[in-house]
Write a structure and sequence with these properties.
The protein is an alpha+beta fold and 453 residues long. Helix content is 30%, strand content 25%. Helix 3 (126-147) packs across helix 5 and helix 3 (126-147) crosses helix 6 (269-279).
Length: 453
């Protein structure tokens, strides 16, 4: 029976019957025997296999090149080499799939740009194997966090007729051919439909019935931003809580970030150590910073005042009434407060229609959670639960009320204060791994001009 290398390396005693099914990382030949370094993707470390010339299958040893797949049967014995506890002494060697000299992942450094061009092979490398193992573990941790707190997981639609953000940067879903007489009512769904930018609005429906819910699924933005922080397809985590105000929303968001950072360090120690050594040498210190220090909460107006009085020259000048840039957010966390920070009560004009208007009529109950190295990692708000003010908000943002009649119904039938937030899963992975480009934390990046694989 096959045994994963991660379990073999964690063994506490020798074993006379081990079967390893993996890919060859390297091969070194000596007189009368060879060393194979095998990896099956279960962990960062390789397993060294010593293959004697008398071993059945050794006659094909020259075909065991980097990238080839193999099955090795043997005995697990203590390794005399420094830095490894066990090695496998082969008793049988089988070549499953060859890899010829064109195999691109030879033992040398490769640029991220090159690795993105071979996204079908890059998971076999140390860096991307570690990234996608972390992604898997963190996806499980997201569900564990909410399920342990009695949140209900809701699948919201990928195809929608509603624009949650009101920005209009959405991908149209259509079967029309673009002829002059094509009309929306003739389309597949009988109206204009789009790929969703958020499951929040639909999530509110379920929060107003099941109290605490969360969504976790793909979302899409047709924003033409070809930057290291933007992708056209990404995954969003969006909890929504009935009978919750802004303070409760901030409590959950801050706890969520701390919990997932702690989970990554405890459950992915080898991969996290790799990131800290080879990707971002300040990673461990930054995560410790977030785990050990309480969040500072500051109103947007005060944050802008701090930035204006800082004397620091920013690439993007600070402007009251405008969104904060990443460099502004990082200054607040890294230099001014020296603590993770939550900024709240943003100007009404720059935030979506669904955010609850404060008594001043100028700000809304929006909040952004900021962390060092990244800036904003979570955005959320208390939702506008008052029917008349929601109608005024729709008019303010020039939305068509008929498109959101079902949303307004939630304010007519048993309305309650409720709040929630959104967290881009890839943004979280960038924060926890130190990887600086969103294209490198998602298996197959979708960006302007690129939809490969």
């Amino acid at each position: 029976m096959r045994t994963l290398i991660k379990h073999i390396l964690a063994a506490t005693e020798p074993n006379d019957s081990v079967v390893v099914k993996a890919w060859v990382r390297t091969r070194r030949d000596s007189k009368g025997f060879s060393f194979l370094e095998l990896n099956d993707g279960s962990c960062l470390a390789n397993l060294q296999c010593v293959v004697d010339a008398a071993t059945p299958g050794y006659e094909h040893i020259l075909q065991f090149t980097t990238g080839a797949s193999a099955i090795v049967t043997g005995k697990l014995v203590p390794s005399p080499a420094q830095g490894q506890k066990w090695e496998l002494h082969a008793t049988k060697l089988e070549l499953i799939g060859i890899a010829d000299a064109t195999y691109p992942l030879q033992k040398k450094g490769h640029t991220p740009e090159f690795m993105r061009s071979i996204a079908h092979l890059r998971p076999r490398s140390n860096l991307y194997g570690a990234i996608f193992r972390l992604r898997s573990k963190l996806a499980f941790a997201v569900h564990e966090f909410f399920q342990s707190r009695d949140f209900v997981y809701v699948h919201t639609p990928i195809i929608t007729a509603s624009d949650c953000e009101g920005a209009g940067e959405m991908f149209r879903v259509t079967t029309l051919k673009g002829k002059p007489d094509d009309k929306p009512e003739h389309d597949f769904f009988g109206k204009k439909t789009y790929l969703t930018v958020s499951g929040q609005l639909e999530g509110e429906i379920f929060a107003c019935a099941l109290s605490n819910i969360y969504t976790f699924g793909p979302t899409f933005r047709a924003e033409n931003s070809n930057t290291a922080r933007h992708a056209a397809e990404f995954w969003m985590i969006e909890p929504e809580m009935a009978f919750c105000d802004l303070a409760g929303d901030m409590d959950l968001a801050e706890l969520f970030i701390k919990s997932l950072a702690k989970y990554a360090l405890e459950h992915c120690p080898e991969d996290m150590a790799f990131f800290g050594k080879f990707v971002d040498k300040g990673l461990n210190e930054r995560l410790k910073f977030v785990l050990e220090r309480p969040f500072v909460r500051v109103p947007y107006a005060d944050a802008v005042d701090i930035l204006l009085k800082s004397g620091k020259k920013f690439e993007y000048p600070v402007a009251p009434g405008q969104n904060l840039q990443s460099e502004h957010e990082r200054f607040l966390t890294e230099e001014h407060f020296k603590s993770p920070t939550t900024v709240f009560n943003y100007p009404r004009a720059i935030k979506p229609f669904y955010m609850r208007v404060n008594d001043d009529g100028q700000t809304v109950t929006a909040m952004d959670v900021l962390v060092p190295g990244i800036g904003e990692v979570i955005g959320g708000a208390q939702r506008e639960e008052r029917p008349d003010i929601l109608a005024a908000q729709m008019a303010f943002h020039q939305l068509t009320p008929a498109d959101y009649s079902w949303y307004a119904d939630l304010r007519k039938y048993g309305t309650v204060p409720h709040a929630g937030f959104g967290l881009g899963f890839e943004r979280l992975l960038m924060f926890l791994s130190g990887v600086s480009n969103i294209r490198d934390v998602i298996p197959f990046a979708r960006t302007p001009g690129s939809a490969e694989f």
